[in-house]
Amino acid sequence: MHTSTKVQPRTFFGQPMALAYLSFTEAWERFSYYGMTSILVLYMSQALLTPGHVEGIVGFTSFRAALESVFGSMTTLALASQIMGLYTGLVYFTPVLGGWVADRWIGRRTAVMLGAVMMSAGHLAMAFDASFLLALFLLITGCGLLKGNISTQVGELYAETDGEGRTRAFAIFSVGINVGAVLGPLLVGLLAQLYGWHAGFGLAGALMLIGLITYIAGFRYLPADRPRATPTVTKAPLDRRQWRIVVALGLVSAITIFQSIGYYQNTNMNLVWINRSVDLDLLGFHVPVAWFNSIDPLASILGVPVLLALWRFQAARGSEPDDLGKIGTGAWLTMLANLLLVTACLISARANVLFPIIYDILLGIGFLYYWPTLLALVSRAAPAKLKATLMGAVFLTLFVSNTIIGWLGGFYEHMTPAGFWAMHAGIAATGGVLAFVLKRPLKRALEIT
């Protein structure tokens, strides 16, 4: 008697195999990005923008004049903060355009690959003073093509009705982000301390190429690109219900701007504060400042299984927070993290190293509450014809947040450190208040039960 055994498809922690390749691609991309950003503001303020170096940057005189025509005259530190804010903001603005280009012309697969190539070239260009502005352009453009589209591919692995599956997938996907975010500052920061700034930037570029190879290796598992419209095809306009959902998603996304300001300042002025005001000597070793940017993503990695278990426990008892509740919780945790730095500043002019460590742990858990939840909500609720564009638009909130962060960094030299971090605690708390006040009308608009 002949019996046949059905071969079960391979899975990745019970999820489609495509999620593994997308997560590892994102991990390598985040490795290079967070590694580079962990040293960027210190590199600019301590080396690149100082006399003897700044003159060698091609086109920088005109670039600085343009910035100061908008933001006014800036010190070296304020200029470094503003460039940092604009750069980190623009790498999240361009996914709006990247999603639009992919939806209408080149498809998501091509967009992700082209973006990875441009980002690799940008990181390598960052290894030289003269090509600094070219490097920023390549990184910003490449990120626009990669970011929104790869997140959209994660959402397309699941049925529209599988909200729980999508939320778990984006939580796993965020682990890939955070693995790269942990390793990037550790290795790039150490390499920069031992061998110089440009060695760190060069490593970031090489590892971005590995991300491209990983993505290509997983091609056979990836969801097929949705057929693109031709000029002869007229898409039906959005109906009233769909427009209501789009507006509601925009409002939810806007709420997260406040906690993002409180969160992402840890890659800008927080590194300057640590460098100036925290005792970094440990057993004869001077801890690289960049290493602190590995703590919050590590907290997010370790927190994923704990939070998933907590949410399953709460769901079984009917008490799991809904999407707006989780986003609000993320805001309150971000507020607490910034209040901790206020306490550190008030206790001593030279803070104990435990304060920034606990600060980053709180930020990492807060991130898990609000950011994967927002991505899953948009992926699930957005009208199909605008899904990639709206996923890109989610990253527009980070453009606004980081641009404001760069501007706020200019106040650091004119405020006490305690006042500076208290301001950020208040900003994060605003997001928590708005999530609470607008919870019911937004749930109705988004048809969340």
Could you list some keywords that capture this structure?
449 residues; mainly alpha; Growth Hormone, Chain: A; two-stranded antiparallel ribbon; two-stranded antiparallel sheet; 15 helices; 74% helix; globular
Walk me through this protein's architecture:
By secondary structure, the protein is an all-alpha fold. The chain has helices at residues 17-48, 60-71, 76-125, 132-155, 163-195, 197-217, 240-264, 269-277, 295-316, 323-347, 354-381, 387-394, 396-409, 417-437, 439-446, and strands spanning 11-12, 15-16, 281-282, 285-286. It has a two-stranded antiparallel sheet with strand order 1-2. Strand 1 (11-12) and strand 2 (15-16) form a beta hairpin. Helix 3 crosses helix 13 (396-409), helix 7 packs parallel to helix 10 (323-347) and helix 11 (354-381) runs antiparallel to helix 12 (387-394). It is globular and about 55 Å long. The termini are far apart.
Q: Give the overall pLDDT as a whole number.
A: 88
What pattern of helices and strands is seen along the backbone?
Answer: EEHHHHHHHHEEHHHHHHH
Helix count equals: 15
Low-confidence stretches: none
- What is the level 1 CATH name? Mainly Alpha
Structural class of the helix and strand makeup? mainly alpha
CATH topology: Growth Hormone, Chain: A
> Number of folding domains?
1
Beta-strand content: under 5%
CA-based shape: globular
Q: Report on the biggest sheet.
A: 2 strands, antiparallel
What is the CATH homology-level superfamily?
MFS general substrate transporter like domains
- How far the N terminus sits from the C terminus, by CA atoms, comes to 52 Å
State the total count of DSSP E strands.
4
The strand order across the widest sheet is 1-2
Helical proportion? over 70%
Supply the CATH architecture. Up-down Bundle
How much is the radius of gyration in Å? 22 Å
